[in-house]
Amino acid sequence: MYGDTSQKSTRPNVLFIAIDDLNDWTGMLKGNAQARTPHMDMLASQGIVFTNAHCAAPCCGPSRAAIMSGIRPSTSGNYINKSSLTHNPILNNAVLLPEFFQQHGYYVGGAGKLFHGYHFNYEVRGRGFDEYYPSKTQDLPSFEGLKFSSKLPLGGWARTADWGPLRPDVTVDDHPDGKTANWVEGKLLKGQLQEPFFLGAGIFEPHLPNYAPQKYFDQFPLEDIKLPDGFLENDLDDVPAAHAKMAHNPWLKRIREMGQWKPAIQAYLACTAMVDDLVGQIVEALEKSKYADNTIVVLWSDHGFHHGEKGRWGKYSLWERATRVNCIWVVPGVTKAGSVCSKPVNLLDIYPTLASLTGCKPPAKQLEGNDLSVLMKDPEAPWDEATITTFGYKNYGVRSGRYRYIVYEDGSEELYDHTNDKWEWENLAGNPQFAAIKKDMRKWMPVHHEPPGATYKPPRR
Ligand SMILES: [Ca+2]
Ligand SMILES: [Ca+2]
């Protein structure tokens, strides 16, 4: 429909909204009834929401490397946050998504966290971008000093494990995410973008530290905060040692000891509500702009997050809490308002889908995901697919419409039936009744396992 280069000017623009560490605690995914995300819900209602969408990897770096390259972690060897993109020949030789659009004549602009490497890896940020906010070599301002009080004395944590309201004199415009939204809004409203364009807005919250203005905390009074429905004491008792070991972290225990479980949940909900307002700001700017009728909007989060479920605080697991993501598309002339699709899809599918929707020819032999435009046209279209999440070398989780099947490098397994176990409490892998299901699920797992590639050590700042 959009043809090739001869019809370049008719190609649709792309507004690419990335949200960091946002799990399914959103209105449209119904992962937590306390969540308030009216703007994202509204966006979802204007197009299609994929309710069974999962990340390629449950951490920022490999998830984003897979989105931006269209290549699975098991093919590239990019498994962990320290995995380098530019020092990995497979990824370095790939046409990254911004480069892809630039090569097809798009103006490519971005702000905030699109690739992993918010604080470093500028050479990646520069690749394919005509413009980056604040610049290709300059970071957004630090979070340090934005909060009212000093850091929580949580001890032994990553430096970002902190939450609380912003100082009263600090507004959302001072927050890095507010600055990102303001820049993107300005670009859209000013109306001087070269078309077609690819414009990326990388929102950092609700990644830790969870800082937002007090008014967002006030929306979620501490006395009303409920602990996660998916939490079950001793849930790990039927989980193989391999995963229990991989997934173990001391954070939940520490948070409980400190009396911070509910405050931490409150802060995550507050930051998500702030992010939702920023999404609303960006989407409203698009709607007011002259680009509204010819711009694809895709909104995604890079992986989920555990808030104590399975004894875990954080990402880095192959369970639903860490793999399920937000994935909304509004595509003029393609998506129908109010569409919901429960077929298993992956963030790896974003690149081939954008290529298909814009009519830009994808790079040969690179993309491993699927074209979701089939499901946009008909959410019930035949879809013989399950979706894969990779967590480290040779550990895979496969999600079908009904089951989650996990196999670790040592061969140990988990199987969950989402029809009657949405929190994945009962591991069925040892039950011979499910042997055929496991066999069927195993066929989706990668047969090639690229050894872990080079790691990248960020320069000291
Ligand atoms: Ca992330
Ligand atoms: Ca269990």
Short description, anyone?
This protein has 461 residues and is an alpha/beta fold. Helix content is 28%, strand content 16%.
Structural overview:
Residues 1-8 have low confidence and may be disordered. The chain is an alpha/beta fold and 461 residues long. Strands 5-4-7-1-9-12-2-13 form an 8-stranded mixed sheet, with helices on both faces. It is 28% helix and 16% strand. It has one domain (5-442): Alkaline Phosphatase, subunit A, CATH 3.40.720.10. The chain contains 15 helices and 18 strands. The site of one calcium ion (CA) has 6 residues, from loops.
Give the CATH level 1 class. Answer: Alpha Beta
**What's the alpha carbon Rg, rounded to whole Å?**
21 Å
| Structural class by SSE content | alpha/beta
Low-confidence stretches: 1-8
What overall form do the CA principal axes indicate?
Answer: globular
Helical stretch count? 15
Percentage of β-strand residues: 15-25%
Largest sheet, spatial ordering of strands: 5-4-7-1-9-12-2-13
Average of per-residue pLDDT values: 92
What is the CATH homologous superfamily assignment? Alkaline Phosphatase, subunit A
Q: Could you say what the CATH architecture is?
A: 3-Layer(aba) Sandwich
Bound molecules: calcium ion
> Span between N and C termini?
48 Å
CATH topology: Alkaline Phosphatase, subunit A
Strand element count: 18
Specify the helix fraction band: 25-40%
Largest sheet: 8 strands, mixed
Tally of structural domains: 1
